[in-house]
């Protein structure tokens, strides 16, 4: 009988290092939102990849940064919690940015959080620099920590991801699979749907507003024809933000709804009827229920 393997792999790094892009590349489906804005991954999203007889469960942690607000502190605590629970850790750094102060700070913290968990260095976005720069960066970073392996990849284009996947599949512990073979994420569809809508809002809006809003799936109704009715609320922190999210004549929220619905249909493989409301909830950043919806612990944000 063939031996199966299964384990958790934590993706850590600075915001925008490409963790969500790598997760989606490895899983082959979009389970984590990817935007040009930093700090968009709030909850620890698990994406599940099958590779030969191995099941590799990726934990996409929020980017690790210097926290200012309660939400920031909860996100950073969640990131290190994801690393502590994993069988393997992947540290992503960006090839064109090199060993930044932020990356060095994460490496220093790894000494406290990694324990005996193997850590691999993944240098991402290699298509942005020359080969000699990559070799210098690899040598420089490997002098700072005893990495188990070093991989050079482009998560967006897939370069080097096959070798990384081969290694992960061989390194996760022997044992039964943790999830059904055809499952790609362990988040409820309600939360994935909310993340899809939040991504579209983040792409559409600018400045601070995306970090001052959250999306919750208020109701989910299964229809007899196989479709689903999804009702969501976009909570904003200030009255002035509501008008910006709605847009002139409601054009912004309409465009967001159309884009989100199209992605939900593609993800779920069935028709979706999406209904969005925008509500002002000035103190949502201080409400424990909102954190639970995002898969975060409100108490982790205590200063």
In words, what does this structure look like?
With 303 residues, the chain is α/β, with parallel strands linked by helices. It has 2 domains: 5-171, P-loop containing nucleotide triphosphate hydrolases (Rossmann fold, 3-Layer(aba) Sandwich), CATH 3.40.50.300; 189-301, GMP Synthetase, Chain A, domain 3 (2-Layer Sandwich), CATH 3.30.300.20. Helix content is 36%, strand content 22%. It contains 9 helices and 9 strands. The protein has helices at residues 19-27, 70-84, 101-113, 131-142, 161-171, 189-204, 239-246, 251-268, 288-293; strands at residues 5-13, 45-51, 54-60, 88-94, 119-124, 149-152, 213-222, 228-236, 272-280. The strands form 2 sheets. It has a 6-stranded mixed sheet with strand order 2-3-1-4-5-6, sandwiched between helices. Helix 6 packs across helix 8 (251-268). The longest helix is centred in the C-terminal third of the chain and has 18 residues, at 251-268. 42% of the residues are buried. Residues 124-127 are annotated as: G4. Belongs to the TRAFAC class TrmE-Era-EngA-EngB-Septin-like GTPase superfamily. Era GTPase family.
């Amino acid at each position: 009988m063939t031996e199966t393997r299964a384990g958790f792999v934590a993706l850590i790094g600075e915001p925008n290092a490409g963790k969500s892009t790598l997760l989606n590349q490895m899983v082959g489906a979009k389970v984590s939102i990817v935007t040009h804005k930093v700090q968009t991954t709030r909850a620890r999203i698990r994406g599940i990849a099958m590779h030969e007889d191995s099941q590799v469960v990726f934990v996409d942690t929020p980017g690790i940064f210097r926290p200012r607000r309660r939400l920031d502190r909860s996100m950073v605590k969640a990131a290190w919690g994801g690393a502590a629970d994993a069988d393997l850790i992947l540290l992503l750094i960006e090839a064109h940015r090199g060993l930044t102060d932020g990356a060095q700070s994460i490496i220093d913290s790894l000494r406290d959080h990694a324990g005996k968990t193997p850590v691999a260095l993944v240098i991402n976005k290699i298509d942005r620099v020359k080969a000699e720069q990559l070799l210098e960066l690899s040598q420089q970073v490997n002098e700072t920590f005893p990495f188990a392996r070093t991989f050079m990849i482009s998560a967006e284009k897939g370069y080097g991801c096959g070798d990384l996947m081969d290694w992960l599949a061989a390194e996760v512990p022997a044992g039964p699979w943790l999830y059904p073979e055809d499952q790609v994420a362990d988040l409820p569809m309600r939360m994935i749907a909310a993340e899809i809508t939040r991504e579209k809002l983040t792409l559409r809006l600018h400045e601070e507003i995306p970090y001052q809003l959250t999306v919750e799936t208020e109701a989910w109704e299964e229809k007899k024809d196989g479709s689903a009715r999804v009702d969501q609320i976009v909570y904003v922190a200030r009255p002035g933000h509501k008008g910006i999210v709605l847009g002139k004549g409601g054009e912004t929220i309409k465009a967001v709804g159309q884009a989100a619905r199209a992605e939900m249909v593609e993800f779920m493989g069935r028709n979706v009827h999406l209904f969005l409301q925008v509500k002002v909830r000035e103190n949502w950043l201080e409400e424990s229920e909102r954190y639970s919806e995002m898969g975060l612990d409100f108490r982790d944000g205590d200063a």
